[in-house]
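HUMAN: Quick job: go over this next protein and say how the chain folds.
***
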Amino acid sequence: MSRRVQILVALVLTALWGGSIYAAHASGHLRFLDRLEATLTDLRTLARGVQRPPDLVTIVAIDDTVVKRGGSYPLPRADLARIVDTIVQFKPKVLGIDLLLVDRSAAIGDATLAHTLATGPMVLAAAAIFPSADQTVAPSSEGLLGALPEAERFLLPLPAFADHADVGIVNVATGQSGSPLSVPMLFRTHDKVELSFPLRVASRALNKPLTIAPDHLMLGDRAVPTDTDFALPITYYGPRRTIRTVSAQSIFDGTLDRAAIENRIVVIGAAVAGGGDFFPTPFDTLMPGVEVVATAITHLVAGDSIVRDRRVHTADALAAILLPMLLVGLLAWRRSAPGLIAAAVVVIAWAALNLIAFTHGVWLNAATTLAAAVPPVAIFAGVQLWAGDRRTQYLTARSRSLAQFQSPAVQEWLAQDPDFLATPVRQDAAVIFIDLSGFTALSERIDPDQLQDILKTFHVLIDKTSVDCGGMITSFLGDGAMILFGLPAAMPDDAARALKCAIDLHRGVERWIASLPPAIGGRLGFKIGAHFGPIVASRLGESHQHITANGDTVNVASRLMEVATQNGARLALSDTLLDAADYLGDRDSTLRGPLRTQIRGRSGTVAVWFWRDESQSRQPAAEADVAS
């Protein structure tokens, strides 16, 4: 499978994964993502910071001071009637009572409260009772209102109170973190639909008719964007009491400020420790439920709620599909650091866009997009690393394999200059030829595997000796080799190193043959020829190239092996090589010559010297001197 096809398959699988994650979460599965989204929403809220709320709502809190005065909670109905009566006298736009008036109390207290409720625009709280802790959703087949939270029944205020006021359901929707993230605007049972408490209060305050559209609500001519289940997403302005809050005790003390009530929306609710509902929010570990309700009312009246409607859900779906595809595409485009950097930049840009959208009133889902992006990107990156590691191992092995065919100096030179010897180069160089004698006859008498071992050992000896002296083996010629000194660049000591190499080869091969079994070593010999002069170095071949040298110098060095054999020697050196090496002999060897001789296939003569090793013949004498 080609790389392009692999990338295409990876992108298709990534898109399918992202779409599946979004669809599964939208269908109510993958609930663990709700907790992650709640955490990320809290972080975005904190990053946005505290905001000044529109000054539209006043909370009259029944707090610890009030309960301490009255001595009990719930507050006696007569005391509640006094609070309501005082507030009504200050002419609020509407008064919402976020208390469940579902139980009968003292007759006088209930009658007084009922009479007081009839004196102004009132909204009373009711509660939806669900079959379990989670709100169940009605089947979507029931049309426009099919997605509403479906309750078993509604817990309504006593008829004596409800007859004088509107009623709204006060339940809020909490995520798995326990923090209210939205407030349902509509509730249903099997036979009826009720408006939420915040929606009732806002509708009365605005004095606008309510219209239910397919994917949003209308208060008069103003659209109220809601989630797909007609829930109003909420964001908190700040910690508790950010929305104007006064204690109900100020009514009993006669210190209530008229300006805090007049022509405003007023909500009475419990803020007493141990009574009423409290919820964790990004700014508070415990916020009274009445302030959560007041936040929803403010959103509805001011029109500043955060948007999480069908268009936002469409954007979430696209992000869950396109962002992972983009990241995988970037990693496929550049598998090294540039690809990782580009992917990181895209992730940072997406996170910044998500935060900016949130601070500007658009709630894009972050958890679903992360769940859609992280697994395929991690898997693809892991596969890329694995494939890269395999490729590195392959290239390393291939490099090691190829390195066996060139000397270290040539390998380094080719790495620096890939065009090395692409154009032939003429220069002076030293050339050595070495060849085994009797090898062909020996190959007819011994096992091929044993013969191969002998030849391999011989080649290893040549390779080590030439590398130690800085030479380059241009080729192994069966049972011989050609060694060149002068590449990759000509050096002043090329001839001297070549001479040392020839002498070391002579001694090394002589010792190696002596170490062989007599039946083998007795049949083998060797000959070496070495010369110095001009050559032409170049690359030969097209798809499979090798570096070689040619010219008269190469031919002379090769023919010198014949001259050595004809003169009973093993190492023949040209006079030119000895002069270039400035060699004057040493105590462990002798030079015989010069012999001016004709070279086969060449006109003219060459002065040749024959080198003989004397170190072995002198060793016993040296040992005898030590003994004496």
Residues 367-403 form the longest helix (37 residues). Residues 133-143, 619-628 have pLDDT under 50 and may be disordered. The CA atoms of residues 79 and 131 lie 34 Å apart. Residues 55-303 form one domain.
